[in-house]
């Protein structure tokens, strides 16, 4: 993000579209001066009062034309979102008016803000760290109340404090080890057992945090779950039943679905991108064959699979081929059509897939569909018990695992009987990863990637 903090930036901070109120935000050293040039207070004051809504008019200085009535609110540095001089102008929520206010502000000396630049300035000025910046954008884009709660806590610094606590414990450990090495005559001693105890505890905390990403990603991005099975096992009926609407065409004839259909459904706050696709097996039409090929590729990338089997028919070689093909994927076995006379040898199927969970349903009557929904969450997005913090981004997960790996290297050296100097060096390698995680160590590429996801005006 190429910019200078000497600029005063401006942007619309409310969503695009029509609304009762729209907000134009200015931040930078000349925010007040520019605001005064485009907004005239009804009761002029030599000094704009802090954090007080002041009534006035949006004004075109050249034509002296009044364009709208609204309010101006001034937030002095460092008591603002960006820790800079900041002004918000509240107008009627017409896109035309708001864009005109921005145009007038730019004409008066401001620069249009880049995406996320207000938050970027808050980060650069030390108001927030990178974890909090990510949480702000996550909160804006929250797709479930559970995710919004997590993002708000992290915006307030909960995850940052967790990481800071881990960093503090690592530094305390390093201090004791290095003091013991450098001043052997002093009464500062730390045993191998003490070092190991601290390392094991930290590794456990970091492992717990890393494993939370699976649930966090489900909350933030949603899960893709593909419905697989031979032709005519009831995949589309199950798809419609889970959506609670007639989205896929259902007929008694095999091969009705020739391409995949994707729809979103929420299960206990988690977004699930459900995919219905052509039945696996011999195709009767080139379009169906292409649908099967596309389905295979999509299933390989999906977060989880519902492999549907027809309870009213005997198992076939195609069923076992399908199970074998997706052996390593997370999956649930769904024995459908339980409202009909059973013919399948269920145990034979289960013996071929040891440890895989299964459920008997009737997509037609709705039997056990609620149980299936719960099993989908438990299998594809398991919730961790008593989880205080959940990481939502792959960047965070990778760095947490890097920190954990450094500590594990130290523990391994300790168990091998290596000198404390080598153990300390391995542990010390965790600190740069912590700095990258919180943004204390800045990477322009990472910063650009994070803040480019923000909307202009935040």
Per the CATH scheme, the topology name of the largest domain is: Rossmann fold
Unreliable runs, pLDDT <50, ≥5 residues?
Answer: 253-258
Strand order of the largest sheet: 3-4-5-6-2-1-7
Count of individual beta strands: 13
Strand content: 15-25%
Instruction: Characterize the main sheet.
Output: 7 strands, mixed
Mean pLDDT: 86
| Helix and strand pattern | EEHEEEEHEHHHHHHEHEEHEHEHEHHHHH
Please tell me how large the radius of gyration is.
29 Å
Number of helices: 17
Category from helices, strands and their pairing: alpha/beta
Q: Judging from the principal axes of the Cα atoms, what is the shape?
A: flat
How widely separated are the two ends?
A: 14 Å
Q: How does CATH name the architecture of the largest domain?
A: 3-Layer(aba) Sandwich
Helix percentage range: 40-55%
- The CATH class of the largest domain is Alpha Beta
CATH superfamily of the largest domain: P-loop containing nucleotide triphosphate hydrolases
